[in-house]
Amino acid sequence: MSLSLNHAAVLQLQDGDLHALDAIWLTVLEGRVWVTRAEDPQDHFIGPGGSLRLEPGSLALLGAEGAARVRLAPLVEPTPRPARPPAPGWGRRLRDGLQAALGPAPA
């Protein structure tokens, strides 16, 4: 089964289950899983609390050694926050603070 996610989900795995993954954060909650990635000569065995980032296009297989529970979350770029306008009166407070520290401005 191939998995594609728009939001995070918890997946319950049984021994021998196989799932194709791409562009996802994998975190093991319970049990032990293995991940085989294309172009990667090593298998990754991950226990509870462990995680693995699967980049877009990495194509990986996820398998379980016995029962396991994993959290899968899509890779998402954070949405930039719009800049906040300056608080009212900030210029006056800055000027007053500088005058207090440095003295009045020369005429």
Keywords, please?
8 strands; mainly beta; 38% strand; 4-stranded antiparallel beta sheet; 107 residues
Description:
- The chain has 107 residues and is mostly beta strands.
- 12% of the residues lie in helices and 38% in strands.
- It is rod-shaped and about 80 Å long.
Quick overview of this protein structure:
By secondary structure, this protein is mostly beta strands. The chain is 12% helix and 38% strand.
Q: What is the topology, as strand order, of the major beta sheet? A: 1-8-3-6
N-C termini distance? 77 Å
Mean pLDDT: 82
Q: What structural category do the secondary elements indicate?
A: mainly beta
The CATH architecture of the domain at 9-74: Sandwich
Any idea of the CATH class of the domain at 9-74?
A: Mainly Beta
Please tell me what the overall shape is: rod-shaped
Order of helices and strands: EEEEEEEEH
The CATH homology group name of the domain at 9-74: Jelly Rolls
Contiguous runs where pLDDT drops below 50 for at least 5 residues: none
Total number of β-strand segments? 8
Rg, please?
A: 25 Å
